[in-house]
Amino acid sequence: MSMTTQRNPNASVNWLLLLLKARTFVALILVFAYFSFAAPNFLSVANAVLISKHVAINAFLAIGMTFVIITGGIDLSVGSVVGLTSMIAGYLVLNGIDPGFGWSIQFNTLEIMVLVCLVGVFVGWINGILITKLKVAPFIATLGMLYIARGAALLMSGGRTFPNLNGNPEYGSDTFHVIGTGVFLGVPVMIWMLIIAALASAYIARRTPLGRHIYATGGNERGASLSGVRVQRVKMFVYMFSGLMAALVGLIIASQLKAAHPATGEFFELNAIAAAVLGGTSMSGGRGRILGTIIGAFVIGILSDGLIMMGVSSFWQMVIKGLVIVAAVVIDQAQSRIQARVALAHEAGA
Questions:
Q1: pLDDT grade, residue 347 (50/70/90)?
Q2: Average pLDDT score over the chain
Q3: Of 42, 57, 159, 304, which is least packed with CB atoms within 10 Å of its CB?
Q4: Dihedral sign (CA 40, 45, 48, 49)
């Protein structure tokens, strides 16, 4: 009596699909392991704190970018919005608002945060209006806003820096530094802010009708509209949310440096896109997870800091980041093709 074993032809495909879905986590383990051996002092506590701060800055932008990309859009303006909101924060700390009647309106730290965040939301609202009402392609609309926001930041100070943002205890703005450098329960305040933003974003994405509408809009905009989804409102929300995340980054950087420079945030949008795509967000829309984006931000952050610690040229760093983005998109497309084949195979088997 002989026994024969039949090999399941779908087993290898399922394993490959599982590996592709876990690619961000695998990439995180690989880069962490490599730099642990290759970069001196990589595992030190001071370096871990520094990396976490760098990751937080990119993660804020990447979370907003994830929502935008899920709807099938793109936001190239976030880096410039970081620069603009950083300058506005600096101006408010130093000067307040002068209505022109011989007196000025001064603000405390919380009021400055609210005003700056409203500016970020307003910029996102303009992007949303251009895209939903005027039917401008997201790439063009946000590219135009990139230049507008950067130009506005330069005009605010004539290209100069707003220095010494120590605030004034008389107005309650002397705590401005806490946003970027403060510590609560042994953890930087900015990390607590990121945790709150990430949890809120994940809840919106997975547990609310708005989250389902965001995915539906990116998966099939026409079908979503026919199903009763208010597609224009959904798009308005994601761009306004992206602007809010950029404003938070502008606040954090101005607070960290105790200075605001109009060039702040240059090329930040590229790191945000890289983190989102590396985290599994599909550039064609309809798919993405906040957790994956956070892991993607860690990969980009560890990669950037590790290369710097190894003394790799900044030019090569740009090349490597570009390769990572291209590889992430190629892998995402491969995953989509495999998933489509598996779905067809299941339908044929049924």
A1: low
A2: 88
A3: 159
A4: negative
CA distance 83 to 261: 7
User: What mean pLDDT is predicted for residues 323-341?
Assistant: 78
pTM of the model: 0.89
Q: Whole-angstrom Cα distance, residue 321 to residue 271?
A: 8
**Could you tell me if 246 and 76 are in contact, meaning their C-beta atoms sit under 8 angstroms apart?**
no
Q: Please report how many Cα atoms fall inside a 13 Å half-sphere around the Cα of residue 89, on the Cβ side.
A: 42
Delimit the domains of the chain by residue range. Answer: 42-340
- What is the rounded CA–CA span in Å between residue 169 and residue 336? 56
Sign (positive or negative) of CA dihedral 72, 118, 167, 196: negative
Local structure of 252: helix, strand or coil: helix
Where helices occur in the chain by DSSP H, the ranges are: 9-21, 23-38, 45-70, 78-95, 109-132, 138-157, 178-181, 189-207, 209-219, 221-226, 231-257, 268-278, 290-309, 314-349
Cross-strand partners of 183: 188
Residue 147: CB atoms within 10 Å: 12
Rounded Cα gap, residues 57 and 46, in angstroms: 17
Where do we find the tokens 């779905």? 343
On the question of pLDDT at 321 being above 70, the answer is: yes
- Encode burial over 38-62: b for 16+ CB neighbours within 10 A, e otherwise: ebeebeeeebeeebbbbbbbbbbbb
